[in-house]
Structure formats: C-alpha cells, structure tokens
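Try this one yourself first.
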C-alpha cells in the first residue's frame, strides 16, 4: 500500500472482532474530517466489519488488501456536513 499516503496508522494485529472495529471507530473520531487511517489487522473479518461500519457511518473505506496474513485497510474520516 506504499502508493497511498495516510495520516495515522492503527495496529490491531492479533486482536479479534469486535476490537479492531471499535478501535478504528475511536481513532477516526479523534481525526480531522478527510484524514486517512491505515488499519493493520490479522482478523479476516475486519475487512467486512469496517466496510459495514463505513456504510453505516459515512466514513469511507478507500482500499483494502492482504499481504502475508496482514490486512491493510485504508479508511477516511467522513467530511463535515
């Protein structure tokens, strides 16, 4: 994911559902609108959970990929309305 830039990284490797999603929610809440967060996770359910979280909250999942069992998910804090 080196072609993308991001503002912060959240390492939730080794943590199981629902912790990665809850920690992502908390981290995004502290960020400025439009900033991006790279989430590093090992639980394969994290991609699905964060996709659903984005759909429900207005935050965006910009991309996700898996490399050697580590899921890299790029999230963007929703813009102010």
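Now uncover the answer:
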């Amino acid at each position: 994911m080196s072609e993308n830039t991001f503002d912060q990284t959240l390492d939730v490797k080794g943590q199981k559902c629902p912790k990665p999603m809850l920690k992502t929610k908390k981290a995004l809440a502290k960020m400025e609108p439009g900033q991006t967060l790279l989430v590093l996770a090992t639980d394969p359910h994290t991609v699905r959970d964060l996709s659903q979280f984005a759909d429900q909250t207005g935050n965006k999942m910009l991309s996700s990929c898996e490399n050697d069992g580590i899921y890299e998910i790029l999230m963007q804090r929703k813009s102010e309305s």
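Discussion: The longest helix spans residues 45-57. The chain has a mean pLDDT of 93.
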